[in-house]
Amino acid sequence: MATVFVIAVFVADTLSGGSARAFARAGAAYMWATGASAGETVFDSGFFSTRRALEKENKSLREELTQLQTRVAVFDILKSENESLRLLTRFTERERGITAPIISSFRSSPYGTFLIGAGSEDGIRAGNLVMAGDPQFGGFVIGRVENTDARISLVKAVFAPNETTDAVISGISVMLLGRGGGQARAEAPRDAEIKTGDAVFSPLMGGKAIGVVGGVEVDKGDASERVYVMVPFSLTSRFVYIIGE
């Protein structure tokens, strides 16, 4: 059918001396103009422009939301740091020393060590005790300075993996074995009156508290019980207190 139409147009154009061809071209131009006009009408109708405006607005709102979330996160960090510093200032009422920031991850080291931002020029010496927690309840020794540089010191955690520490729980002397992550384990006589929540002290740490009992397990027939000890606060503290000599 299309072939017949083309032949008919060709014959008509020949007989008309080219008039049919001119007419066809004019018709095609008219149809193109009409289509373009219709397209402009659709685009100018507001549908696509409104959609583009909404996409731009959504992008702007997402960017604002990201900025607000960042500001909230920064505010929470500053609030946490201020609270930590406020609590640590109470140590000065009982112990002579200084406050220092933790500048490396407490949990990342497989050796149970971390760095603090204070060193020999600040009066820090190897053997100084490092404390954290709420001083209102006495605070807890979480480590001891191993070595110092001018402005940086390396601290070994009390409960570093496989680190042993003499301790006393409810009047019972035990040997704690560090497990890392602020946790340790000990064996105690089966009849020892040790319960969850009991404070754990160490004569090697000046008789200060180093943790609390997190749980007690005993198997039938065993002459001893397993005592699990932990630091009773998150190890995400940003500051610690170093007791001076």
From TrEMBL:
It comes from Candidatus Kaiserbacteria bacterium GW2011_GWC2_49_12. Residues 103-231 form the Rod shape-determining protein MreC beta-barrel core domain. It holds the Pfam family MreC. InterPro entries: Cell/Rod_1, Cell/Rod_MreC_2, MreC, MreC_beta-barrel_core. Belongs to the MreC family. Keywords: Cell shape. GO terms for biological process: regulation of cell shape. One of its GO terms (cellular component) is plasma membrane. PANTHER family: CELL SHAPE-DETERMINING PROTEIN MREC. This is Cell shape-determining protein MreC.
